Amino acid sequence: MADKQISLPAKLINGGIAGIVGVTCVFPIDLAKTRLQNQQNGSRLYTSMSDCLIKTIRSEGYFGMYRGAAVNLTLVTPEKAIKLAANDFFRHHLSKDGKLTLVKEMLAGCGAGTCQVVITTPMEMLKIQLQDAGRLAAQRKLMPETVAAGSVEIKSPTAMQITRQLLREKGIAGLYKGLGATLLRDVPFSIIYFPLFANLNNLGKKGGEGPAPFYVSFVSGCVAGSTAAVAVNPVDVIKTRLQSLNRASTEDTYSGVTDCIRKILRNEGPSAFLKGAYCRALVIAPLFGIAQVVYFLGVGEYILSFLPKKDN
Fold it and tell me: What is the pTM of this model?
């Protein structure tokens, strides 16, 4: 049986609401993930996710855990809307000629992942600078040996300041630094996530008719999301390192994906590619679980039902 058809406006509303709710819930964990991934040997400030969050609250206050949240909350709506709507679009068209096979499901996920990077790359670029600013400030105080001699402390930038600086110095390409790494992360993620979610969700359908219960959609989203997140975490580490504009004097700089891989392997070992993996799983699991619940409960359709209908 084909999946139930949902209008494009409803898909966009569902994806947007799910993204805002999900990001609000898990953003502190995402901040810890970014800071853990960015710290290198010789400049390790945090030992774990909990240690990072505790030190962040002590040095920056409770709202320090939400550095960069405004960027995410602003751009996550179009990002999640594009991802969910694009996946549904590709699944619908790929199933016109017959059964939606696993290969076709993976192709639909590939299309969704490719479409979303238009929003994801600049969103991540800005978010990472804001999230990591607190780590660099803490290093100046607690680990002065990592600070270059004669350097001047810079106040934490705002998203608009970073955007203006990037546009002024590098043009629109500045906001899309790390695009290749983002594609290498998001396309495989979607190839894994969407087919896995669809098949897990189908297992929970009662009698094979209609949508699965909301709790099945939630669990399926969590399992599929965490699995895909851990699978692509090595590329997420590379993407985070490439998109970070500022770093301590003792930390490596990278010219591209291959240079980043080589230096991480040489200086930190293979285990460095798993930095922040459990944080990322804890972020993605509820994020996509919430997304699928909102999607399958039909929140967007309910909101649209209050709008006046056009007469034919």
Answer: 0.84
